[in-house]
Amino acid sequence: MKAYDGMYIDGAWRPAAGPDVIEVVNPADEQVIATVPAGTAEDVDAAVRAARAALPAWAATPPAERAARLAALRDVLAARQDEIAETVTAELGSPLKLSQAVHAGVPIAVAGSYAELAAAYAFEERTGNSTVLHEPVGVVGAITPWNYPLHQIVAKAAPALAAGCTIVVKPAEDTPLVARLFAEAVHEAGIPAGVFNLVTGLGPVAGQALAEHPGVDLVSFTGSTAVGRRIGAIATGMVKKVALELGGKSANVILPGADLARAVNVGVANVMSNSGQTCSAWTRMLVHRDQYDEAVELAATAAAKYGDRIGPLVNAKQRDRVRAYIEKGVAEGARLVAGGPESPRERGYHVSPTVFADVTPEMTIAQEEIFGPVLSILRYEDEEDALRIANGTVYGLAGAVWAGDEAEAAAFARRMETGQVDINGGRFNPLAPFGGYKQSGVGRELGVHGLTEYLQTKSLQF
C-alpha cells in the first residue's frame, strides 16, 4: 500500500491542511491499495486562490499557445497510457483491455481534439457593426465521478484550459489515483502553475466547499441527478454558471426490419461494458411483440458470455445497491432470464450480468438508473407505443435506434427526447456534443459545444 501526500496546488504538491486520509480499495479483491489526503475547505480555498491568481495570464495567453500546451498534455498522456490503464484497473476494477482502450485511450483523443479546437476556434468575430468576443468564464470548479475517472477530468479540464479558464478539480474519492497521474501529466506538459489544481477529498466536504466557493465562476459536475440538484441549487443561488451531466435510463429501440441479432448483441454489450457503470448505457431494450421472445433468448445467451469478461462494481455500497434493484425487479414481477442478485465470486464487489424479461414501463427497474450490469427488455405494440415508452422516464441522456432502413431509424431518433442517439450501431464520436434532456442534465461536453460551455460573450459596437 502506498500513502500519497499532498494536493496539486499552484504547480506543486503541497501538504494537506488536515490529517485525514481516504483509503483507496481495489474492488476486485477488496484490498486497500493506497491512501490519499482527505481535503478540507482550507485546501479548496488555497486551490481556488491559486486558480484566480493564474487566471489573468492564462486568459491572455494566445489560443495557439494554449493549444500547444494541450498538445503537449496529450503527448504526455499517450506516453503514460499503460500506467494510466493499470492505475484505473487497480482502483476501478475494470479489465485491463477496457482500461487501455477506453479509460486511457478516449481521454487521450479528447485532449488532442481540444488542442486542435483551441487553435482553430474563432474567439473573435464580426457581426454587423459589432465585434463579438468569446472570453473565458473564469475559474472552474470541476467535480468528477468514478465510473470514467480520467475521461471525466479531461472532458472538463481540456475545454476549460482551451477556453482560457483555470480550474480546480475534485475527483471521486473512489478513484483519485489516476487524477494524481493527470496532475503529474499537466506539470510535465508545462502548463503554468495555478492553471490546473487538484484537491482530493469527500463530496460533502471538499466537493461542497468547491461548489460554494465565491471565487468559482462555473461549477461543472458529473454524477447522480440527486447530487446534481443540490449542486445546481448552490451554484444558481450564487449566480454561477453550472454544467450538469447526470443520470440516464436510455432506450435501445429495435424496430421491425432491423438486424435483430446484431441489435440485441450490441445492446447487451453496451449495457455490460464497464460493468454497467455508464450513465448513457442502453439499459432498456424495446422490442416489437412479434420479435420479443426471440430477442429475449438472444439477450440471455449474449449476457451469459459476459460472466468472466466484466469486472466488479466500484465498491460494496454500489454492489448492494444493484443487488437491491435486481431483487426489486423480481418482486415487481419481472422475469429473470440471466444472472440474478447472487454474487458470482467470493471476493470482490461482483454482480452477475443480469437480463430481465416481461418488464413493463412502470416498473422500478424500467424507471430508475441502476448503474450496474442489468438490462430490462420491454415489448411494444407499434412505433407510437415504442416512442411513448422510450420517452417515458425523467431522463434523456442517450439511446439507440435500429431499423432496416437508416432513414426510418433517423426519423424515429428525431422524436426521442434525449441528447444523443446511435443509429444502427453508429460509432462514438469525441467531437459530438454529449449531454442530456430533462433530468439528465444541463449543458454539453465534448467538441466545440463542450468548449463553448466555458466561454462567455462580450460585444463591442463600433
TrEMBL record:
Keyword Phosphoprotein among UniProt keywords: no
Domain of life: Bacteria
Enzyme superclass (EC): oxidoreductase
Pfam family, one: Aldedh
Family annotation (InterPro entries): Ald_DH/histidinol_DH, Ald_DH_C, Ald_DH_CS_GLU, Ald_DH_N, Aldehyde_DH_dom
Matches recorded under PROSITE patterns: ALDEHYDE_DEHYDR_GLU (PS00687)
List of catalytic residues: 245
Protein's UniProt keywords contain Oxidoreductase: yes
Domain Aldehyde dehydrogenase, residue spans: 13-459
E.C. number: 1.2.1.3
A GO molecular function held by the record: aldehyde dehydrogenase (NAD+) activity
Family per record: Belongs to the aldehyde dehydrogenase family.
Protein name, entry field: Aldehyde dehydrogenase (NAD+)
Organism per entry: Streptomyces griseoloalbus
